[in-house]
Design a protein that fits this description.
The protein is α/β, with parallel strands linked by helices and 330 residues long. It has two domains: 163 residues, D-Maltodextrin-Binding Protein, domain 2 (3-Layer(aba) Sandwich); 99 residues, Periplasmic binding protein-like II (D-Maltodextrin-Binding Protein, domain 2, 3-Layer(aba) Sandwich), CATH 3.40.190.10. 46% of the residues lie in helices and 19% in strands. It is built from eleven helices and ten strands. Strands 1, 2, 3, 4, 5, 6, 7, 8, 9 and 10 form a ten-stranded mixed β-sheet that branches. α2 packs across α9, α2 packs antiparallel against α10 and α4 packs parallel to α11. It is globular, with a radius of gyration of 25 Å.
Length: 330
Amino acid sequence: MNSVKLSRRYWLCTVAGLAAVFALPLAAHAKTYPIKPIKIIVPFAPGGGNDVFARQLATQLGLQLGVQVIVDNRAGAGGTVGTDAAAKSAADGYTLLLGHTGTLAINPVLYPKLPYDARSSFVPVAPVASAALVLVVPAASPIRSFSDLLAGAKASPGKLTFASSGNGTGGHLAGELLEELANVRLLHVPYKGTAPALTDLLGGQVDLMFSVIPSALPHIDGGKLRAIAITSVNRSVRLPNVPTVAEGGIKGYESSLAYGLMAPKGTPDSVLKVLTAAVAKASETAALRDALKAEGAERLSGSAADFAALMQAESAKWGQVINKAGIKPE
């Protein structure tokens, strides 16, 4: 009797042990990604809109995925250096890129040769945010509204100057698009960065500027700059009283930067699904929404495929503007 009981107990223990052994690979497989820190490359210097979005996104993704997510700033050549580094990274989901309209849609048609291919070097993970530009003039300027700007530009073609952070940048192209759609002529004055352009605008050396919202906000709030228009389709959540360019009578005008998380081409579908789901959950958090709002941006909805389609459409749109205006990189 005792022998039978022992045999049965031995058999039960053996079965339980085998079940545990066979279960181990399944549990291990369920946690194959991520098992180490993830890096998000931001192809610009710290402090800009890309960097702010990326750091808050990294924090929220880390909470969702259970691993550390860090931001790696790789500035240089209008975003080309960092974007190229991401393109040449291992396609394992541990190095990602926060790309945007400039690096993924404009640069490929602006520069005759890039070390990466925006379409074939990456796969989209998820859209992140959309940010407009704000058209600003010095507080002492006689231009008090967008209609004033149009009237002045038509009365004196080529006299009004607009600053930008460089040839082919978002601010430059926003001005070129306005010239085309409003049938006016402005004089473009390129600078090497947003800071020196804003400095001269504040000093009255140039008449106006299409600026990224975060850089202009302190001066708008401080009464040194006047915001006369927003370049997006809808008004900015951060500047709700400022009308859009389209509201000012320029139908079809829209110029925004769309941000999306990208992965190197060849990243496994299973990894992409994990990342896409994590971005979706992170986007629902109040912390990320508040961070975007503070920077004058909004959550960009849609799927990874939608973001890829948007970048293709933006590339075609800005390619036409660049070619028509004969814009060359500096």
